[in-house]
Here is the input.
Amino acid sequence: MSETVIKCESVYKIFGQNAKKMLEEANGNVDAKTFQEKGCIVGVNNASFEVAKGEMLVVMGLSGSGKSTLLRCISRLTDATGGKIFIEGQDLLELNNKELIELRRSKMGMVFQSFALLPHKTVVENIAFPLQIKGTNTEDSINRAMEMVKLVGLDGRENYFPRELSGGQQQRVGIARSLAVEPDIWFLDEPFSALDPLIRKEMQDEFLRLQEKLQKTIMFITHDFDEALKLADRIAIMKDGIIEQLDTPANIVLNPATEYVRKFTEEVPREKVLIIEDVMDASSKDNLGDLKVSKDEIIENVAEKILTQEKLVGVVDSNNNIVGSIKPSKIIDTVFGGRKNGS
Amino acid sequence: MQYLKKYPKLFQWLFLLIVFFALCFAIEVPETYKFIRGQAEFVKDPNQSVYFFLGKEVRYYAFDVFWRLPPLLGWLPIWINDSLFFLMNEWMPMEFWNEDTQEFKTRPLLLQISRNLTAFMTFLIELIREILLGGLETIVAFTSWDFIDAYPWLELPGLPWTIVAAGAAILSYKLSGKGLALFAGLTMIYISIFGQWKPSMQTLSFILVAAPLSFIFGLGLGIAAYKSKRVEKALYPILLVMQTMPQYAVLVPALVLFGVGDHAAVIITMVVAVPPMILLTILGLRAIPPEVIEAGRMSGCTNWQLMLKVLIPTARRDILIGVNQVIMVCFSMAVISAFIGAKGLGFNLLLALNQLNIGLALEAGLCISLIAILLDKMSLAWANKQTDYFGNLTFFQRNKNTIFFAASVLIGIVLAYIGTFIFKGSFNYLFEVPHNKGISTADFWNKGVDWIFDTFFVYIKAFNTWLIVDVLQPMRALYLRMPAVATLVLAVGAGYLIGGIRSALVVAALTLFIALSPWWDRALVTLYMATFGVIVSCLIGFTVGTLCFQNKKSAAFMLGVCDIFQTFPSFVYLIPVMMLFGITDTSVLIAVIVYATIPATRYTIEGLRSVPVGLHEAATMSGVNKFQRLTKIEFPLAFPHMMLGLNQTIVFALFMVIIGAFIGTEDLGQYILKALSDKNGAGIGLTLGICVAFIGLIFDNLIRTWVGKRKKHLGID
Here is the structure.
């Protein structure tokens, strides 16, 4: 794994009076219920993880699971009650106000669920806003903003006001604004949740295209498991402030760690999520038939071909070396097996 | 019994009313009591009794505890006076350097502060006034009288009216466009041609100082209150009282603290104009979605940048309404503060009204209203102004407004110069049309008024007599017949039924204050006039509002009309009614009705508008007709908002009733007016003002509590 950009060490966020004191007394053993009785609400409970450079970590959870709170702790929009957060090795909680502002101006960008555009500024002014705050002169900032306008495909609408745009277009502005300062770290807080399903899919594809080009380190919050599967390098599933499981999409689908996670994975069409490599048998490379498939193919795309075969199907890597094999029946197992009856 | 269960509230109200009327009939009017005589503090009266409080002599009339409460607060005005006097003249004497006499002088701290503030305000006003009209005080302020004697050419010449008119038009054009530019130009030309230039510019200079200062202070304090709960808590009661305090009442203490003149007027205008600005600033800042604030912080804003570039612009709608209010109050005060010696249109207006020269008053009133509308529109346009980054403009296009203005200055000067040749020996009309030397339509209006009087005298008189004899006097007698105890029970009971113990206690405290002051009778008269005005206003306002709402265009039109009417200084409303009804209670009441109908109409339309579209559609699909939709869907949902309108209507009506004292009504306002010319009037004026404010606050508390509960019940916020 390449260098770590975000690192959290048992981060806690507890709302309410005396939260800090209660956390110390709890001695690392925070129980949401006992805290609630004493008038405190646990937002984030002992979150530890790392995000590598260029990686996209999707935090998934239902409303009230603490996912947005976790993101706000890492962007320090709220101060964590306990634990340590490192951004590129810098201890985030130790930064003074000035350093924090500097960090945000140079390294961080954030996209919000409700777009959070400034209503009195036009599209291009909104996008140029972080630059102007930094002190970039008007001409440079507007030029840079115009580049961003083109990047998110809003050319011709740069002089519109947010209220004159559709939801999808507004979020494009939000995305462009968060990218204007060329941040290394990109926070997205349910960016597509307020959009229509069709627009949402379009924006997700657009987002993947951007990420391919920009290779940012990303923390992406969503309550939509399908969205998480589609976008993530790794997924963290949260419930009541606790990270239930943090793993690659394939592992979460194949080996859900808890009952809660299993519930999400049950409905997931595995053939759309898993790739051949996830289900192949790496030990047997003999007795192969004529068909060869790439290990990076999504099962859905090659299932039909494999199922018509009688013999083992060879799995090859990008250099056409055989790395394993797959039985046609394995495909059937994967798609239909391992589920509860009736589902 | 089943009705009792079904409508418990109804029976509680009925019970309250029964108790109230029982008390009214059970308590006899004491024989010594004569209707309508307030307490006059400084007149000996054989019927008066005396008691001493803290060594102060307080006189009062005989009372019967059930009928009228004893004036236990009679000492309050005297005490306020004495404390003010002490603060101004004796408290904290210190050594201060005196520029004029070049020596140290001992002066009380407050007096010194007041003098410095006064000097500062005077300087600001003079500066703007002399740019507009010419003069030498500003130059003198920096140098000395000797200096100006030596170099007399240093005196500021003042701008010719042509330049100011062109400047206003160009500025309007830059801010908004052709329409406003035309309006600005015509307004200025009108003012000039009709010979109102000098007083208009005096008023304008007053406003150009008062409005920005009020805006800055209001915004600053609003931000402070937004940032700190403690500041908000400290400010809140003052804001509440100031909201319903009649503007007259604050004049008197200002007189004591700051003396007579424009500077005192500016300070007092700020006192009145800042509270609504603060409230609206807080309101606007509170309404900002948290994500916008987070977005600002994630963009790397420092606290200052966050406030200036994110929070204030995002809250600009409410802040703009605040600016609008400030301008409104400033113009209102521009007239009222003529009572304490502010120069300008207000002074002319008062003078004309005093002489019953309706025509002159009308002209001055029109001028002040036009300037008010102009400034209001300009401030709105300024706040909505956008910058264009992409225009590939030539030098000329970019600077055309500046160039035009420079050109107009040049032309203006040339014209003024030519004018000196044309109008040799007489007034230079191209420089400034002197007061009363322009065209005047006063005669026309006066003749019109005379004609109306001659022609319709019989009808007007008949209407007037009928209204006074058959409606107003019986109503007034009824109000005065209420025993204090009964009123108290009614108020507290209503408070309890609407808002529980808390409301009951608040209302009781407010009512008791008035009941224990020496002016209970006067308060009842004020209340009767206000009630009459409010009832009629609401009837008109709700009807007009509902009718206009039926059509989108008429609704928008009506809101526009309300906007413009609201910009008129309150005093202006007295002019037309005096034309028709002369100096009677009827005039005041009609002014009250016209003035108070504005909020009633506005809130009705706004309330009806806020009913969600989905509900409309649901109702239509249930097959309601228009009338059913109105009564079953729209009214119930819009009612809370309409009640807020009622609240505003009451405040507006109270204001107008108090101002109406100028025409000579017998309410609290009359005493406030009297206090103005009394050297010990500060305490009386302030106490009276608080009494009026409390009347407003009683209703404010009841209505707001009810609306809050109702909105919660309906699930709208």
About this structure: Chain B touches chain A at residues 289, 291-292, 294-302, 305, 309-310, 313-314, 316, 386, 388-390 (CB under 8 Å).
